[in-house]
Amino acid sequence: MQTEIHASSFSVWHPCAGLVAEENAESLVVADSWLLADGRVRAYEMHWARFTRAVGEFGVEPGAVRPFRAEVTETLPRTGTWFPRVELLAGTQPRLALRVRPAPPLRERARVRVADVPDPRTRPDLKGPDFPLLEPLRRCAQEQGADEAVLLDEHGRAVEGAFSSLLWWQDDVLCTPAEDGRILPGVTRRLLLDRAERLGVTVRHTRATPAELAGREVWITSALHGVRAVTDWGPGLPVPPAPTRVDEWRAHLTDCLAPLPRH
């Protein structure tokens, strides 16, 4: 029988006992999360594939993830709007865990600020290890009235957001940094690039400075919000043009929502 959940919860996976509620006493090593709206989710398989690959780097075999996934899928609520996260916890014995959280308000627009330090991540290709470095950067951006911090490379070009991927339009070309090990392979970003390929939209893998991006239609993407159009880069940078393409692509992400599998 499905467990009924009304508020945030945290539980640790025990192979013999299943998901057991515990105090969150350990930091995470790897995480993955997705929007869950009335039992529907985007790209559930892709999220689990990314999580399975990531925890495999820390010695967790796919065979150990499968029963955990089955119970997570059974446990997740089928009503309401949630932002669950699966985790690999730090410690001498890596443990899998589930955190079920109500989703915060969803946004269609975002204000950004450029981080005041170069990209500090040590594992940008994994979600989780660098959270302690990224959370203060986003918090600093929020203190400046923004929603997200944009990370720059050593040449002053935008890489991605602290917790989001970056795409922008240059005329009819959709641009985004390459998956070269220096960005997170974002699931929502991949859904948009796959759509671009199906539509015959030219995609260019490149980087640009904030000054170059501020005059274009720029999106930040994440599993929670989907696509947010950037409306403000902060003092000293131009006000971005009104977005003209984002609604159509956001509608595509809505169409990607599908019911959770049975197991």
From TrEMBL:
<dbReference type="InterPro" id="IPR036038">
    <property type="entry name" value="Aminotransferase-like"/>
</dbReference>
<protein>
    <submittedName>
        <fullName>Aminotransferase class IV</fullName>
    </submittedName>
</protein>
<dbReference type="InterPro" id="IPR043132">
    <property type="entry name" value="BCAT-like_C"/>
</dbReference>
<keyword id="KW-0032">Aminotransferase</keyword>
<dbReference type="Pfam" id="PF01063">
    <property type="entry name" value="Aminotran_4"/>
</dbReference>
<dbReference type="InterPro" id="IPR001544">
    <property type="entry name" value="Aminotrans_IV"/>
</dbReference>
<comment type="similarity">
    <text>Belongs to the class-IV pyridoxal-phosphate-dependent aminotransferase family.</text>
</comment>
<keyword id="KW-0808">Transferase</keyword>
<dbReference type="GO" id="GO:0008483">
    <property type="term" value="F:transaminase activity"/>
</dbReference>
<dbReference type="InterPro" id="IPR050571">
    <property type="entry name" value="Class-IV_PLP-Dep_Aminotrnsfr"/>
</dbReference>
